[in-house]
# Entry
Amino acid sequence: MSKYLGWAVPALALVACAPNTNIANNISASATVEPAKVAPVANPMRNAYFGDVHVHTSNSFDAYIFGVRATPDDAYKFAKGEAIRHPAGYDLQLSGPPLDFLAVTDHGEYLGVVPAMNTPSSPLSQTEIAQSVFGENATDPGKSFLRVGVTVATGEEIEEIYDRSLIDSVWAATIDSAERNNEPGKFTAFSGYEFTAMMAVPGDGPPAAGNLHRNVIFRGDAPPRLFSTLDSTNPEDLWTWMETQRGEGRDVLAIPHNSNISNGEMFALQTYTGAPMTADYAERRMRNEPLVEVSQVKGTSETNATLSPNDEWAGFEQYEYFVGSSVRLTAGAGDFVRSAYKRGLAMQEADGFNPYKFGLISSSDTHVAAASLVEEFHWGKTPQDGASPEGRRSVPPNGGKTWDGADDPQTRRQITATQFASSGLAGVWAESNTREAIFDAMKRKETFGTSGPRMTVRFFGGMEYSPSMLDDADLLARAYDGGVPMGGQLGNVSGDAAPGFLVWAMRDPMSAPLQRAQVVKVWTDGGETHEAVHDVACSGGTVPDADTHRCPDNGASVNISDCSTEIGSGANELKAYWTDPDFSVDREAAYYVRVLENPTCRWSTWDAVRNGTPHNPELPTTVQERAWSSPIWYAGLDLTASD
# Structure
C-alpha cells in the first residue's frame, strides 16, 4: 500500500480548527430561484459551446482537506459568471463571458465523507481516524489523512468511515445541484464524478502511482449510487457498470485525463490486468471512453519534445511529477495522445482493431470550484497555489528582490506548483446548448480542447472538397454533406484520389491574435509509425515554406518586463484548404488540427511583473495558447470503413 503515498496535506492545521457546524451545509441545496426556461433553438450547422467537465468542490476528500468549502452550487455560480470566494479571501470570477456548460466531478471515493468527519453532529466525527485528523489532540493529521488517499488507490476502504448511505446522499445532492442549475438553451449542467484509479509504480524507488483517473459524465438522469475505485480499481469494471447504466436508460461516458503522468499505463499495449488487447476490448473502450482530456492544470498530454523532436511546439506546459507527489517521472509513449494515436493505427494495421480512436477536449481539474483559465489572473489548482505568488514560486521567497541565493523549494506544493498551467476548456460543436446536444457531440467526438482561451476550430475532411469552398456562403452545409467533421472516419479510396481537408479557426477576441494553424498527421507504413506537423494557414496571408512546411515569422513579440505585446501580423481568422502531400491510399492515418496564438506572458511572468522582481529563471517566460481538434481518421487498410 505504501506505493500509493503522495497525497500531501499542507493545510491540515488550518482546516482542523474550522469544523463544519452542520453536515447539511455540504449536501443540501442553497436557496436559489428557479431559473427561467429558455426554449432551445437548434442550429443544424452547429454552434461552438465552451465548458468545463472537471471541477472539484469541498465534497472531494482532498479539496476539503486543502481548505476548500465551496459547494457544487458555488461551482455553477462561477461558471455562470458570478464571483465566488477563494479560501485565501479574495474573489474568483471569469474574465470573459459565462461558460456554456459544466460538470462538477468530485472524487467518487469517500464523496462528502471528509466534511462529515469534521462535522461535530456527524457520527463520523467520532471515529478514530476523524479524531486523528481533526481532533483537538491530533498529533500527525497528515499521516492519518494519507490513509484515506492510499485506500482510494488500493480500493481497500477504511471501514469505519466508508458510509455508503452518506455517500449516496451527497451524490443525490450533487445530482440535485446539476438539475437545479441546468437551463436548457442557456446553460447546461451535467451530473458527474471522478473515478480516481491509480497504479503503483513498481521498484524500490520512492512511493508513487501512475494516474488512471476518469471523469464520468451522464447525459441526463444519473443513478442513485455511483461506482468508484472502492468498488473496483479496474477501469474495465467501470465500463461494465456504465454498460449496465445504459441498459437501464442512463447514457454515460468516461473521459480519461492526465495521461501525461500515468507512467505509461493510460495508453499501454496491454490491458489493466496485463492481458493482450482484443477487438472486443477496443470496441468497449471506445464505446465507453470516446474522449480524452488533452490539457488541464496539471499540464498537457499531447506530446513532449523527446517523443516529437521535430515539433518545435511539443514542450508546451509539461508537468513532470506523479500525481500528489514530488517524485519526478520519465514520460514515454504510453503517456501522450499523439503516441497513442500512432499505437492505435499500428494495432489497426497489425490486428484489425484500434483501442485509441478517441477525440479531444480540455478541462481544468480545479480544486477550488473555479477554473484558472487566464495567464494574467492565475490562482493554480488548490488554495495553497492561489494564496500568494511566493507560494507558487513565481516571485523570490522571503520578500527577496532577486533569485540570487534563493533557497530551493522545500515542499511538494512549492516544487510542483510552478508547473501548473492556466488551463483548460472543452469545446463542442452542437446544435443547441442542451444536455442532449452537447453530450451527443461528445459521443461523436465533434469536440476540441483549448489551453484556456475561447478560440474556435473547425476541421472537415472529404473527397469532394475544393479550395473554392473557403469563400462559399454555404461552406458548412457543403462540408457536412460532402465529408466528415472532426471525430469522423474517411473510408478507403483507390487510385490517385486523395481527401481534402478544411481548417477554420477564429480567435478569442479577449485573447491574443492567431499565429498559425497546423495539421498534425500520424500514420503507419509497413509496421512503422510516423508523425509530421504541417503549417497550413499563416497569419498575414503568407504561405508555409514548401520544404519546411512552416510559416514565416509574423513579427509578434513579448516584452517580459511589462508583458506588453507586439501583434505583428497576428490574425483574427485563419482558413485553409489542405491536401496531404504524402498521402497514400493504403496506409492508416489520422489527422488533427492545432491552432497557435501569438506568444504572451506566462502566468509566472505576470506575477513577477506585478511584484517588480525578476521572473523565476527556471520557468518559461512566455506561452503560446492553443487549441487541438479531435482527429479525422483515414482507413487505408480497412476496406469496409465508410465516411
